[in-house]
């Protein structure tokens, strides 16, 4: 059977770490402080790259997909940044002592360059949307003609949502109202994007980070962290082992990938990608397919599609248009009615129990008073006994009926086979 891979991300929390060189155990606040130093360094380098390349000329170069040497840019972001000679410097000026700058390894610079490449490539999509809106800007912005409405979708990139069109149009209109002329590019519409304080460790190798699964529910992240906010040499970096718990969504057979670390509300968050193998159906040999869609008003909606003329090579997918759906409105109404009945029975049952408690207390007081005034006991019918018997009978009936309603709401209990004689 063919296998496919489903990729997802789980957010984990690192509560403590061990410095491998000294054996020192770092608690949550101290670990968060050192991770924050790492993310601050990568953030500063990423922000420098993005701000320095936030112009139309450099975005054109990145969109062309070709480096200065004429070769196609690599898929990996940090490699593309270095192919374009946009990489970070070996150090961060102004942060060190004795006239030097802050020291960061080549792998840390890779993390910063990878994040910068992802941000600039994401900006290219927004740039294409803004360019399409500017190219089809109507003569009367308050009312587009039919021809102008048809020209806009044709100029937009694929996969653009109506929300993106609306938001970018508002940005262009704001610049037009403020400057009096239309902007020429995305860089005139937006400032350089804000850089998140995180470290994309996926761009590094074993010289900076390793990830090992220790059990079905835990893993260990080994990463080099700075020992102070301004490291000036390799001695100011040390290996830290962070053992964290995996959430139940990460299956035991899932493959763990190198995560991204960040700080959220003073805690170390580890965004852990993982790959789960799933069986995939063969691409050929099927003539009938069932498509389902999960909804809110209608729980499931589907249709049946059939492959026509497959032998002739046409491969047309046809459907009769009949909609299949599962409407849970009736069963939901029944559940609401049963829940209301259950709450009503529980209220009456508790009320009977309170009356019985009060009646027992009153009977005890009356018995004490009778013993003090009449030492001779006389067997006479007591109205309290009759009332207690009626309340106890009513309480039993309400309790049994409440259990029956609960059984109707919940799943049916499994039937137990009788024991052999």
Secondary-structure topology with pairs:
Blueprint: E1 3-14, E2 17-19, E3 25-26, H1 28-52, H2 56-64, H3 77-83, E4 91-92, E5 102-103, H4 106-135, H5 146-155, H6 162-179, H7 186-189, E6 198-200, E7 209-215, E8 218-226, E9 237-245, E10 255-256, E11 260-264, E12 267-279, E13 288-294, E14 300-308, E15 316-319, E16 324-326, H8 329-373, H9 383-409
Antiparallel strand pairs: 1-12, 2-3, 2-9, 4-5, 6-11, 7-8, 8-9, 10-12, 11-12, 13-14, 14-15, 14-16
What does this structure look like?
- Helix content is 42%, strand content 22%.
- It contains nine helices and 16 strands.
- Strands 1, 6, 10, 11 and 12 form a five-stranded antiparallel β-sheet that branches. A five-stranded antiparallel β-sheet has the order 3-2-9-8-7.
- Strand 13 (288-294) and strand 14 form a beta hairpin.
- The radius of gyration is 35 Å and the shape is extended.
- The relative contact order is 0.12.
- Residues 93-100 have low confidence and may be disordered.
């Amino acid at each position: 059977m063919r296998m496919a891979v489903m990729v997802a991300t789980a957010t984990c929390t690192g509560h403590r770490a061990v410095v491998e060189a000294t054996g020192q155990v770092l608690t949550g606040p101290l670990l968060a402080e050192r991770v924050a130093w790492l993310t601050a360094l990568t953030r500063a380098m990423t922000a420098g790259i993005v701000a320095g390349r936030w112009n139309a000329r450099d975005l054109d170069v990145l969109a062309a997909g070709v480096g200065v040497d004429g070769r196609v840019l690599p898929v990996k972001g940090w490699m593309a940044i270095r192919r374009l000679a946009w990489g970070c410097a070996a150090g961060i000026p102004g942060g060190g002592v004795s006239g030097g700058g802050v020291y960061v390894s080549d792998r840390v610079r890779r993390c910063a360059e990878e994040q910068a490449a992802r941000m600039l490539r994401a900006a290219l999509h927004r740039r294409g949307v803004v360019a399409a809106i500017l190219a089809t800007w109507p003569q009367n912005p308050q009312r587009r003609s039919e021809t102008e409405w048809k020209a806009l979708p044709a100029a937009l990139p694929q996969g653009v949502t109506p929300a993106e069109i609306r938001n970018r149009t508002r940005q262009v209109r704001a610049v037009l109202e403020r400057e009096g002329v239309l902007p020429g590019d995305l860089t005139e519409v937006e400032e350089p994007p804000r850089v998140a304080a995180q470290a994309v460790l996926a761009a590094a190798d074993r010289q900076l980070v390793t990830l090992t699964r220790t059990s079905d529910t835990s893993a260990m992240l080994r990463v080099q962290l700075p020992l102070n906010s301004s490291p000036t040499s390799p001695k100011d970096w040390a290996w830290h082992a962070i053992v964290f718990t995996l959430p139940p969504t990460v299956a035991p057979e899932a493959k763990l990938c190198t995560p991204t670390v960040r700080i959220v509300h003073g805690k170390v968050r580890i965004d852990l990608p993982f790959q789960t193998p799933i069986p995939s159906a063969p691409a050929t040999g099927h003539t009938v397919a069932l498509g389902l869609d999960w909804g809110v008003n209608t729980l499931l909606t589907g249709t049946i599609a059939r492959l026509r003329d497959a032998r002739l090579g046409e491969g047309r997918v046809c459907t009769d248009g009949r909609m299949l759906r599962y409407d849970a409105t009736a069963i939901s109404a029944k559940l609401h009615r049963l829940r209301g009945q259950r709450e009503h029975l529980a209220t009456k049952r508790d009320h009977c129990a309170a009356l019985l408690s009060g009646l027992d207390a009153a009977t005890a007081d009356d018995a004490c008073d009778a013993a003090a005034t009449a030492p001779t006991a006389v067997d006479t019918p007591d109205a309290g006994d009759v009332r207690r018997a009626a309340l106890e009978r009513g309480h039993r009936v309400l309790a049994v009926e409440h259990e029956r309603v609960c059984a109707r709401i919940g799943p049916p209990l499994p039937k137990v086979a009788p024991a052999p004689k």
